[in-house]
Amino acid sequence: MQTQLPQIYYIIFTAITALGVLLQAFVLLGMYLAIRQSTKKLHEITDEVRNHLIPTMSAARRLIDDVSPKLKIASSNLVEASHTLRHEANHVSTTVDDLLDKTTAHATRVNEMLSAVLDSVEHATEAVKHSVERPYRRVSGIMAGLKAGFDVLCNREKEPEVIVPDVEVSGVVEEVISAPVSESKGR
After folding, report:
1. Which of the four, 86, 113, 158, 179, has the lowest number of CB atoms within 10 Å?
2. CB–CB of 148/180 below 8 Å?
3. Of residues 172 and 33, more confidently modeled
4. What is the SS3 assignment for the chain?
């Protein structure tokens, strides 16, 4: 059972389809015109950029070609200066180390010489002290003995005064001084 559709439906369907195709054609025509206009503007911009960019690129190229050898020379000079500076720094370091070693050796020698001089001065001071102190002790002992003898002769009952020298008196001098006094009391 097939039913047939009236003819009008076919005509309406065909008209709607034709309108859709016609609408699509107008949209495509509008897109074509917009793209054509955009392409025209793009060509104008490209031509303008090309007119400005090509001279700029050629100037940059000339500048790079001109600067490139100078940069190579500058970098090689910098490398040479770096090597020279490193060599000189090593030389200065070696010289300073050598100078420090020599200074240390001289300081050690001066220290040894000063120690020897101070030891000699100390020895000489001790020798002078002993050479002056011994006769002084002897003279002091003799004087004390004479005084004790005079005291005994004068029959003094008082304790004799002991003369204390300015120099430090050792036990030997004290024995010399006290010996005549104790003998006189025993008599």
Report:
1. 158
2. yes
3. 33
4. CCCCCCHHHHHHHHHHHHHHHHHHHHHHHHHHHHHHHHHHHHHHHHHHHHHHHHHHHHHHHHHHHHHHHHHHHHHHHHHHHHHHHHHHHHHHHHHHHHHHHHHHHHHHHHHHHHHHHHHHHHHHHHHHHHHHHHHHHHHHHHHHHHHHHHHHHCCCCCCCCCCCCCCCCCHHHHHHHHHHHHHHHHC
Token pair in block for residue 113 = 């010489």
Separation between Cα atoms, residue 165 and residue 137, nearest integer Å: 8
pLDDT recorded at residue 187: 42
**Residue 147 tokens, joined:** 């005084």
CA-CA distance, 162 to 141, in Å (whole number)? 10
d(CA 64, CA 80): 24
Q: Find the distance separating the first CA and the last CA of the chain, reported in whole Å.
A: 188
Length of the chain: 187
Asked if residues 144 and 162 have their Cβ atoms less than 8 Å apart, the reply is yes
Q: Which residue has the tokens 């006769």?
A: 135
Global pTM? 0.36
Confidence bin at 102 (pLDDT 50/70/90): very high
